Amino acid sequence: MDKISQKKKAAILSMIIGFLMFGGKLTAYFITGSAAIFSDALESIVHIFATGMALFSIYLSAKPADESHFYGHGNIEYFSAGIEGILIIVAAIAIMYESVSALIFGVTIQKLDIGILITTGAGIVNLFLGLYLIRTGKKTDSLILVADGKHVLTDSITSIGVIVGLGIVLLTDILALDPIIAIIIATNILVTGFKLIKESVAGLMNETDKEILNELVAMIIKSKRNYWIDVHQLRFWKSANKLFIDFHLVLPFYFNIKEAHFEEEYISKTIKDRFPEAELKIHFDYCWFDLCKFCLTENCEFRKEDLKENIIWNKEKIIGKSVVPFRSSD
Question: Please, what are the domains in the chain?
């Protein structure tokens, strides 16, 4: 099964389970009248809307690049994750409102044992669903599936909090604990919502992924040949499961176009072994005599100066500028 099919399958499963969980929790709320259970049910509504958005974004991001979107449609996933974060925050505010109202006007709860059983079942299902969505999202490089999985895990944690809280209410008969627990749960939900929005903004702003950067630098250093005189200005950005990479490579000036592109194919294969959807573009620069002192090329008939200084190949070097200002002509 390809990555797109895996994403669609996961999103559809999440949507179906979301409806079932909402139905179960809403039933538990009507039976008990618990503000904590209501908060759990309200989050399931957000889950349904968010999964619908996720499914839409997965279908749209799968569309190939066209004249209106040269780099494809993958950034829709960042928008979707942001919208999911906003929906989660709205749900948390609604939970807080209902809980404060319950504290002010009084709390009435009944049949908590049934409510606890239903909520326990929902929490267990959501725990496994959330782990599945996160695992599938990471496997398919889908931010929206990871976001949906984190939300579902939050839903599961919420259910655990409800179960513990209602158990305490059942044992102590202190009814005011119910809305207080709901407020605590809502605060946790707020944090999750803000984190999703932060990740969404980071994706839309092309924030550098430090882990990917370190991997790319390691690949370039490992693949380096003696006649690669300099590599600089490494840049990349992600769009869904696509990774767009470019950097400058300084080669001996006597290399022809065919030889230069052999180098691009060589490093491209190495990168694609790790990032299959990567697209690499190399800007080729040519060496000049003021680079001889950095060059490791053996038996170069054009050398004007012996090797005097080794370039330290590290992250700072590869993402930085050339060892000397590039000369287009002399």
Answer: 3-204 (1.20.1510.10), 210-319 (3.30.70.1350)
